Automatic annotation (TrEMBL):
Designated name of the protein: Sulfotransferase domain protein
GO molecular function, one term: sulfotransferase activity
InterPro entries per record: NST/OST, P-loop_NTPase, Sulfotransferase_dom
Alphabetized UniProt keyword annotations: Glycoprotein, Transferase
Length: 316
């Protein structure tokens, strides 16, 4: 008997980290025609050498561990079943497996301006986690990446942030497997400027009724925060790594954030030195961004585009 795989996702939000994918996941999951995975990031198609790899819940072990992520309701199948693991854009296993799944799923990629994305990676893994040392400045972090002098706790997203922000090679590899119809690439800028317009576009492309978003309120999810006490933060990271995801986890997370965090929006403005570092980093990606815009017909204002006749370069 052929195994029933009709519950497998029709849609993957497959990239990139720190580009609003948690909010997008929530916005799609709130649509009455969609069913999101129990965990936003299942990491089921992760590489074995990735820090997000879960030995007991990976495609190499079969579908049994993936099926509980999708609790289908009684009655007709939802129009769209989906999950959102933004690291998939960099995972070889995801690239090998997802395009050939039954049902020919689609993949959505949301890109953030590289310098801003790298800084957000830095702040997230420094403030929300402990992969990047609290005493390490942004400039020192970039120097450590270039020198390969720090393993950042085995977190390859932190280690490879400069290379990962060269989006074009990754997206070209996905386009070769998916084709153009099953792939959508949009920017974080567009998401922030017009979330309603973007989500109506995503819904239509994915097979959902776009009218749902006409009066939707677009709540935010998974914003970077800044801990008030680093000692309490280290304890929080150690404890939450051992807790199963669910109501208790969410309740304790809310309690902790109320006690020991402040919004990254208000506490994370760059000082003069960091702003200078950001400007230099942004300029170093300019030619790559131009090639990206041309290859995927994207409007990327503010991504430090060089003149049209300037040759493409690689990121340091």
């Amino acid at each position: 008997m052929t195994e029933d795989l009709s519950w497998l996702p029709d849609l993957f939000v497959a990239g990139v980290p720190k580009a609003g994918t948690s909010s997008v996941h929530r916005w799609i999951a709130d649509h009455p025609g969609a069913l999101g995975s129990a965990e936003k990031e299942t990491c089921f198609f992760a590489d074995t050498d990735s820090h997000i790899y879960r030995p007991g819940a990976n495609v190499r072990g079969g579908w049994a561990a993936y099926r509980p992520q999708f609790a289908l309701p009684e009655g007709p199948r939802p129009r769209v079943i989906f999950e959102s693991t933004p690291s998939y854009i960099y995972q070889r296993t995801a690239l090998d497996e997802i395009p050939s799944l039954p049902g020919t799923p689609r993949c959505l990629f949301i890109l953030r301006e590289p310098a801003d994305q790298i800084r957000s990676i830095y702040r997230y893994f420094r403030n929300n986690w402990t992969f990047i040392p609290a005493e390490m400045s942004f400039a020192a972090y970039l120097d450590a990446i270039r020198a390969g002098s720090h393993d950042f706790g085995g977190n390859e997203l932190a280690q490879d942030a400069l290379r990962n922000a060269r989006y074009l090679p990754h997206l070209q590899a996905w386009r070769e497997r998916l084709g153009t119809e099953r792939m959508m690439v949009r920017s974080f800028d567009a998401l922030r400027a017009d979330p309603r317009g973007l989500m109506r576009e995503v819904a239509s492309w994915a097979g959902l009724d776009p009218a749902f978003y006409d009066d939707y309120d677009f709540p935010s999810e998974n914003e970077t925060y800044v801990p008030r006490s680093r000692a309490l933060h280290r304890l929080n990271v150690a404890v939450r790594a051992r807790l199963p995801r669910g109501a208790i986890y969410r309740s304790l997370r809310g309690l902790y954030r109320g006690l020991n965090t402040e919004s990254g929006r208000t506490a994370g403005q760059p000082d003069a030195e960091e702003a200078e570092t950001l400007a230099a980093l942004r300029a170093s990606f300019a030619a790559d961004n131009l090639a990206l815009a041309r290859a995927f017909d994207l409007d990327l204002p503010g991504w430090a585009m060089p003149p049209a006749d300037q040759p493409a370069s690689t990121v340091p």
